[in-house]
Amino acid sequence: MATAAVRLQRRTVGIRRALAPIAEARGMARTMLWTGVGMTLVFVLLAIFAPLLSPYGFDQYTSGGHRFAQLAHPSHAHLFGTTVQSTDVLSRIVWGAQTELEVVGLALAFGLVVGVPLGLIAGYFGGPFDRGTVLFMDAMFAFPPLLLAIVIAFLLGGSVNSGVLVAAIAITITYIPQYFRVVRNHVISVREEPYVEAARALGAKPFTILRRYVFFNVVQNVPVIATLNAADAVLTLTALGFLGYGVQPTQGAEWGYDVSRAVSDAASGIWWTGLFPGLAIVLLVTGLTLLGEGLNETINPVLRRRSIRQVDFAAPSMDAGAELLEA
Amino acid sequence: MHLRPRLRYLVVLGLAGLVLAAVGVTAAQSKPLAANHSTASTILDGTTDTVTNVDPAGNYDYGSGTVDILIYQHLLDLNAGSTIPAPSLATGCKANASVTVWTCTLRKGVKFSNGDPFTSTDVKWSFDRVNKIHDPSGIWGLISNLKSVTTSGPYSVSFHLSTAQSTWPYILATGAGEIVDHKVYPATKLVANTDVKDLVGTGPYTLSKFTPGQQAVFAPNPNYAGENGKLANGGLIITYYSKSSTMKLDLQKGTIDMAFRDFTPTEYTALGKTSGVTLYKGKGVGIRYLVLNVKRAPTNKLAVRKAIAYLFPRQDIATRVYHGQVQPLYSMPPAGLPGHTNAFGELYGMAPNAAKAKAVLAAGHIKTPVPLTVWWTPSHYGDASADEYTEIQRSLNASGLFKVTLKSAEWATYSKTLGTQYGAFQLGWFPDYPDAEDYITPFYGTKSNFTSNGYSNAKMDAIIKNEEGAKTLAQRLTYIKQAQVIAAQDAPIIPYWQNSMLVVGRSNIHNMKKTIDLDYLMRFWLLSKS
Amino acid sequence: MNQGSSLKRYAITRLALVVPMVFILLTLVFLLMRVAPGNPVSASLGGHAPPAVIKEISHQLGYDKPVYVQYGHYLGQIIRGNFGTTISDRRSVGSIILVNGAATLELTFFAMIVAVFVGMLIGLLSGRYRDSPLDTGGRLFGIVVYATPVFFLGLLAQLIFGVWLGWLPISDQASPITQALLQTHTNIFFLDAIIDGNWSALWDITQHLILPATTLGIVYGGVFIRLIRVNVIRTMKEDYIEAARARGIKERSVVYHHAFRNALVPVITVVGLQLALLLGGAILTETTFNWPGLGHELYIYLQNRDYAAVQGIVVVFALVVVAASIVIDFANAFIDPRVRY
Q1: Any chain B CB within 8 A of the CB of A266?
Q2: Which residues of C249-264 are buried (b: 16+ CB within 10 A; e: fewer)?
Q3: What is the reported pTM?
Q4: Domain count for chain A
């Protein structure tokens, strides 16, 4: 009769196996991973707790009945100074974190929901659907990505009310070809594996095979790609904001838009309106990249390093041959 | 550790560093390119405007217009310091009794820059081709009242109009009236921008080189007779910038000597305080206004429109957003033009009045706060539009009478929609000619309304008709004043600021003040450089 | 099946796919532009002319015809090789590609040199001395620099080197007078100055290239650092490296002659692809430095809904990308028989 603990162990075997590399990570990979997690977590917390953490609203220009000064230097009242609209820069950074993560989260979700299944089906079944989709995706690759995002933003801006949604969809569409291509290529290499063939020989239906074997194998790649794409997506979002598309300034704070307004300030000696949003972008993207790189180093077998346990050859014993794994 | 591979890279790095240092040192000392005599007096200007077509039959935008006044002339020109068209290529123009035919006597002995003589054939040719080419830029709309052009001898030309128009001389001074050489310009096609040898005119300069989107290079026209002022410099190069901040940095560095159009308010303020640089300011004729849709709720109710008029924060916008670079405007025709009255000020007060707004809404049985969506566009009218509309939203909301939601759309989408979907929206206007008439007809005439806001008032239409047919200036001004009163009473549009003509020049540019006036024309030929 | 015909078959298949790919892109661009609200006429005259005039001009240009009719007309023009002239300023798409494409090429080329140089230098060292402080520093540099938006980095570069230190020019390809006097041959300023032997102009042009090329190059250098480093690590694990060491070859020689060279091979693929992407995507750098490149032009025409311009430029651009990817795929197929269809 299995105890509760053993039953729990059995049920979580899959997850633990998946997460094992992370626990075994050492050295640079581990540092990167956890630094990345830390930095990203800071922004996630800022985003979630924005109403509590932010001193003012993102478009708040008065407090206690009196207006904030315009383009004021960083001071006690406004740690990062104020903007040309008399709003607080620090508050806009905090609320901006919410905007960025909202958009990027949505974009990732949409991208995965659309790109991964497409890649799976196209890769596994092949045939005309595969060829057609590959052709279409290749054509989209040839379109400059930022411009594609801008055109989508035009298209949707009129009909969709939420700037966050517009930006998310625009970014999704530029990244779907990437998800699709990576997943499809991986599926193609996996479907020739002996165990998949064995499953086919056993009479398993295609969708069963996809679900139980291919999907889990392929999905290992996804966190790394997703995180690195998240980093890229933030850059695309801020580029859209810089050019004036996506999230409109009246709908929420967006770091890229703030930098675009700050450009004329910077040329006039006012540095705080641009430096802080710019640094925020750099830090968030760095955090996400470190997270992605760290994951890559831990999961990707080519780069993976496990800890080396020193073996003492002088005293032979039964446990000596235990683990001698070298990267 | 193996030193050698590292050493190699260190050596490469070191060399790279030396190269950079050499660049830095020599860059700091490098002189500008061989300054021979003519380039030393070439004025270097920067602008964020763009040029579509240089050929006058093919453009209807300010940037192209700036280039055109440098290489072409009109029969009548708006010369420095005056808003009345003065003789230029024509020695005089007279109307017949019914003001439907204008006859101009042409100046003798004028030559194009390629030596071709200027005669009435060129005049007829220039106007005819504007209509024949019928360019998508819409410039032919300015001469829509022209039925035909006839010549009688080489120095007399007559314009036959469909309806009487006493402001026809102003039309002659617009871009549609620029005179081109009939021997060079095709009758049904535009001359390409890069065919600079064929862009022949009688103006102070010739266009010697044109690189689209980058620069336009002008050399003096030896055949220019000086009707619009003597040429005081040896040439001009206009550099086109996509961002005003880059232009500002270049101005500070001395890469360009002056800049006209357009900086952000913050940049103008900073430039005004920079040493070595002067900010020249004069009255302007560009205006900004809020259009209210009289067919859509809630602005279809007059009470709502009046309340907005009572609350409008003109002074706040002028000081907070534009740092005094614009002036509050109380009527569509701006101050400085004959016929301007502070119609909105007289009816609604010069400052916002929340009490009266509340009263008018109560009298109209309108529930407050009134939900109102106001639209604006982010870059077409400058980045400060965002701040402008935030200010409007704040004031209207602060009164407790309105709940304003701001929405924006990029220009191509915005300009297509306007009154067909927007209830309240931002627009700006720059006149075709500096006369109050050009601020009334495009906005209040039922058929001629540019804003699609559904405004139609028979009384206003009658006044406009009378004004267009009036024979003297005094008569016209009476009608214009009447029109402004009705415009304020009906308030389908709320004007709120007029701009200033702002030019920034380094201390080596002189005579700038000569060209700053209500004509809003940059007469580069009058400037000199030391 | 011998090697020759398999390669030939691959080549034919690959080339045959170009046509449908370009066709899809054409249609995609066309649909996107037509469906997007606004048209070139309203963009230039909206709020500035009576609706009747706008309607008349739209009719004159055929924008009120049904979409499929306009599509047919558009395809007809393309097949005849007429990529059209822009609506707003009457430039032929061909001249836009020549003039602005040359500017972009100039910028991209020098940016790539910077990127590859930075990437190689730091990437090779990082990979070789894995986990050392050099590696950590190099990787961090690559990550942070890629994370910096290019418009931010560009602005900083302009302020620091252009204004405060005053060392370098901050905009355009050359100073106004140099540009005015320069003779046009290839439209690539750098080459034009060399062709004329105009050394002072060449110096001026080089100075103008430094900030934009370095800014753009460093950002992409970050990508190369990561790529080269991973390749070096992977290569260093290969059996033949181990074998070389076992044969007693000096470590330095092992690293140089074997590891580094093989690690750099895939880089060529990436350089090719990045180059193609950069050609259209350098909008932000070009806007910041007032560089008259293709990306910036495309962006302006897009804002003005200049259908002809956008369609024409995107198609030509797509052809360039497709050509580049074909060349690369072909090179890969030539080297690696497994890649063929």
Answers
A1: yes
A2: eeeeebbbebbbebbb
A3: 0.88
A4: 1
